[in-house]
Write a structure and sequence with these properties.
With about 120 residues, the chain is mainly alpha-helical. About 45% of the residues lie in helices and about 5% in strands. The chain folds into two domains: about 35 residues, no CATH class; about 80 residues, Orthogonal Bundle (Arc Repressor Mutant, subunit A). The protein has six helices and two strands. The longest helix has 16 residues.
Length: about 120
């Protein structure tokens, strides 16, 4: 496979840094799931959360896991690119069941986290 500086996905130009993530979304390429995850998955699949002060089950609040808020916010912001990916169907169904107020709180929390990443 030959790589260039940009590609087209669903008629949109995609910069090379995003290519690795989008490989699982484009058709005609053999790839796996675009890999993003929330805190609950990280806790379930690793021991990274053992001494962490954050709670992966919380999406907002002082003890909410930053990975959880960033995960859901990422999925919401990139819905236009990822919603059709069957490997993400369960995540998008769960996101669809969230109340608008919960999504807004997650988005606000994610923006604050991104603005203060060095303090986390």
């Amino acid at each position: 496979m030959r790589f260039s500086s940009s590609f087209t996905v669903r008629g949109r130009a995609v910069a090379r840094p995003r290519l690795e993530f989008l490989l699982g979304h484009t058709s005609g390429l053999l790839a796996t799931k675009p890999y993003v995850s929330g805190g609950a998955y990280i806790q379930r699949m690793s021991d990274y959360c053992t001494r962490c002060p954050y709670d992966p089950k919380q999406r907002t609040g002082a003890r909410a896991c930053p990975f959880s808020a960033l995960y859901w916010d990422f999925l919401e912001r990139h819905r236009h690119l990822l919603d059709g990916n069957p490997r993400l169907a369960i995540a998008y169904r769960q996101l669809g069941r969230m109340k608008p107020e919960a999504k807004a709180a997650i988005s606000t929390n994610a923006k604050a986290l991104l603005a203060n990443m060095e303090k986390i």
